[in-house]
Amino acid sequence: MEVQVHQVEGVKFSVNARTQTIICDQPQENGGTDAGMTPPELLLASLGTCAAYYAAEYLRTRGLATSGVSVSVTSEKLKGPARLGNFRIRVNSPVPLTTEQSEALMRSVEHCLVKNTLLSPPEIKVELNVEQGAETMAGTCV
C-alpha cells in the first residue's frame, strides 16, 4: 500500500491513493482554510471506516442487513509525547440483534486491520530526501 502526499498551499495537502484523492487541511484557527480533515481526524476516519467495513460485512454475509451501519470514533489528545489515545469505537447496527449476533459482530470488528495496527505499534522509518543534494537522511521512530 502507498499514498502520496503533496503540499497544495500553506497547510493544505492532497493525498493520493490509486485513483483517489482527498484533501487534508487545518482549521482556520491553525492557519488553514478548513478544506479537509486534519491528520488526526483522518486517523479516526481510517479506524472508523475499517470497523464499519467489518461490521457491515458481518451483517451482509449473514443476511441481516445490506446498509445502514454507522460508527463513531473518539479519542483524546495526550501529551508526553503529543499523541492520540483512549480511542472509543461505537458501532451502531441498523437492525436488532440477538445477544449471540451482537457478540459475533463485535468479534468481527476486532479483526479491523487499522485497529490491530494501532494495538501492535509498527516500526516507522522516517527518511528525508533533500532536492538539492544527493544524500538521503534516514532515521527510525518506534
From TrEMBL:
Where are the bilayer-spanning segments? none
Query: Which InterPro entries does the protein's record reference?
Result: KH_dom-like_a/b, OsmC/Ohr_fam, OsmC/Ohrsf
Gene3D superfamilies under this entry?
3.30.300.20
From the Swiss-Prot or TrEMBL record, give the protein name: OsmC family protein
